[in-house]
Automatic annotation (TrEMBL):
Belongs to the glycosyl hydrolase 2 family. Coiled coil: none annotated. One of its GO terms (molecular function) is beta-glucuronidase activity. It holds the Pfam family Glyco_hydro_2. Residues 217-291 form the Glycoside hydrolase family 2 immunoglobulin-like beta-sandwich domain. This is Beta-glucuronidase.
Length: 590
């Protein structure tokens, strides 16, 4: 044992063994609308900067050697300090604020079989990679900091169980996102950990939505099952629509198109229907909205009517809770957007919690959802592509029954190289293949020399997203007018970002950067131009409220915050520019 211990400690290739066993979207199960048990709460926690848990295999808990002698240990799980799950460790204790690296989380839990035949564990999100162990067995590693992952644990559960997770938020050049972003790199298990009890055969995937043919009178339902009863009949019930429909399942799959005319979901009238889907002993209860989104020339068309996306961009962050945002905080963000007369929000630059889309379904906010293919990621690395495509698939499979979600976005401001066009157009194709009923977009690159919207990726997109900072990074504001005159898009353009830094309450002349006066001046000029451009079909200024950012070192106007928010970081103060957007959206015709 001594030798093995030494080997493990010095084995520099320890990581490859763990990475070889990956948890991907293939093990995903449809979990919205299910009864689940949460394993959240206080877990034992140890910062493990040198990955000693993985090298020395602490998870094996070999407290005595084979001769029954005490084996000296460098840990004691049950005496460790406690860390709240879900949370970002950075906001829990000041000493962890800037920590990046591995940390070990562990807890025990009791389990009794209640008649279920299969059991899954779900993690809502762990940033960036998570290596999961249950009762000394290694279950696998998930990469990607913002999407859920699942593991079947039926055979491993006992009466007393120990779960252990090594969460590592180290930034890497080859990750998605890469090592340089314009947001704070929070660490930890920051969404729920859940246990899901299922029958032997269960519904693995479920897709429901209006057939996007302009008729508004057909619903398509698809069901995939897992388990030995691969042939049978599933049943869909939507009581309010008088639907009780059986769906024939053959080899674990079935689909049906039902003729019915539901009341359509829209931001003004976010109608949801109680929907049950059953197969054998399995039951999913969901609230579903039906709407159609498509593009017609330069128009974005919702339920047959052209719509302007009156939006705002948002990150998933709160000063108090880091990335572990609460339902109350999500509701607060949507309420602020509504106060600004928005009908739409861009959830930038990575998948936000699934609660956001569930709440947006209820409150009537259209959503743009995005994966963190952000700036210069390693477009030449096939592993990086695999990771990006896996994150995209996990996001789409998680949220594709949410009426609020209208756009899948495959990236933001990426240099226009051949490798990038190949990489991102493949992602756009993948999004369409997984979900032909929604629009695909990205925040494209603009040519700031010739002032033109000109990005080869646009051919693969339904909407051209454009981030422009005329008046701020592009200091000559007048070039914005040139940009719009020079561009001849054949598709709708959404201004996915514009804005300027301003410290809340910091006042001065319009020429003084970092003041509210300079910010509001840029906003006034921007909206005056948008009004005149017929192909601009939406705007989502950067950003709802200020956010933490390690790149922003101006001591007066930033202090490690990106202050382009329309509100201060704690949302207590609205800046002048907030009211410019509020008025702009109010004045736009419906
Ligand atoms: C951008 C990025 C966003 C930044 C913003 C800024 O274009 O998409 O992530 O935070 O500009 O403030 O520079």
């Amino acid at each position: 044992p001594a030798k093995n211990y030494d080997d493990a400690i010095h084995n520099q290739s320890y990581e490859a063994q763990y990475l070889a066993k990956r948890i991907t979207n293939e093990s995903m199960i449809y979990d919205a609308g299910r009864t689940k048990e949460s394993l959240s709460g206080y877990w034992g926690f140890g910062i493990d900067q040198y990955d000693t848990c993985l090298r020395a295999k602490w998870f094996e808990e070999k407290y005595v050697d084979q001769d029954g002698r005490y084996n000296p240990m460098d840990f004691s799980f049950d005496e460790w300090e406690k860390m709240l799950v879900p949370s970002s460790w950075n906001t829990q204790k000041e000493k962890y604020f800037l920590y990046e690296g591995s940390a070990v989380y562990t807890r025990t839990f009791l389990y009794k079989n209640n008649g279920e035949e299969r059991v899954y564990l779900k993690f809502g999100a762990v940033n960036y990679d998570a290596k999961v162990f249950l009762n000394k067995e290694y279950l696998g590693c998930h990469k990607g900091g913002s999407t859920p992952f699942f593991m079947e644990v039926t055979e491993l559960l006992m009466e007393q169980n120990r779960i252990l997770v090594v969460a590592n938020n180290t930034r890497h050049k080859d990750n998605v996102p890469t090592d340089n972003t314009d947001w704070f790199n929070y660490g930890g298990i920051y969404r729920d950990v859940e246990l899901i009890r299922l029958p032997k055969t269960f519904i693995k995937d479920f897709t429901i939505g209006l057939v996007p043919d302009g008729g508004f009178n057909k619903i398509r339902v698809e069901v995939k099952t897992e388990g030995p009863a691969a042939n049978g009949s599933a049943s869909l019930t939507i009581g309010e629509l008088g639907i009780r429909q059986s769906i024939e399942i053959r080899d674990g799959q079935g689909s049906v198109v039902i003729e019915v005319r539901p009341e359509l979901w829209s931001p003004d009238s976010p109608k949801l229907y109680e929907t049950n889907i059953e197969y054998g002993e399995d039951l999913i209860r969901e609230k579903i909205g039906f709407r159609e989104i498509r593009v017609d020339g330069q128009e974005i068309v919702l339920n047959g009517k052209p719509i302007f996306l009156k939006g705002i961009s948002a990150h998933e962050e709160s000063v108090k809770n880091g990335k572990a945002v609460t339902d109350a905080e999500i509701v607060e963000n949507f309420m602020l957007a509504k106060e600004m007369n928005c009908n739409y929000m861009r959830l930038a630059h990575y998948p936000h919690t699934e609660r956001a889309a569930q709440i947006a379904d209820e409150m009537g906010i259209l959503l743009w959802e995005e994966i963190p293919v952000y700036w210069s990621i390693n477009f030449n690395n096939p592993e990086t592509y695999r990771d990006a495509e896996n994150q995209l698939t996990e996001l789409i499979r998680r949220d594709r029954n949410r009426a609020s979600v209208i756009v899948w976005a495959v990236g933001n401001e990426n240099p226009d190289t051949d490798a990038r066009v190949t990489f991102m157009s493949s992602l756009a194709r993948k999004a369409k293949e997984l979900d032909p009923s929604r629009l695909v977009s990205a925040a494209c690159m603009l040519d700031h020399v010739n002032h033109i919207i000109n990005d080869r990726l646009a051919d693969s997109l339904d909407i051209i997203g454009a981030n422009e900072y005329y008046g701020w990074y592009q200091t000559n504001f007048d070039n914005l007018v040139k940009l719009f005159e020079n561009s001849k898009p054949t598709k709708p353009v959404v201004i996915t970002e514009f804005g300027a830094d301003a410290k809340a309450g910091h006042r001065g002349t319009v020429d003084e950067k970092g003041t509210e006066d300079c910010q509001v001046d840029i906003y006034r000029k921007q909206v005056a131009v948008f009004k005149r451009i017929p192909y601009v079909k939406g705007t989502s200024p950067w950003i709802l409220y200020d956010f933490r950012c390690p790149r922003r070192l101006h001591p007066v106007t930033q202090n490690y915050y990106n202050t382009k928010g329309l509100l201060s970081e704690d949302k207590s103060r609205k800046k002048l520019a907030f009211y410019v957007m509020q008025q702009f959206y109010k004045d736009l015709p419906d």
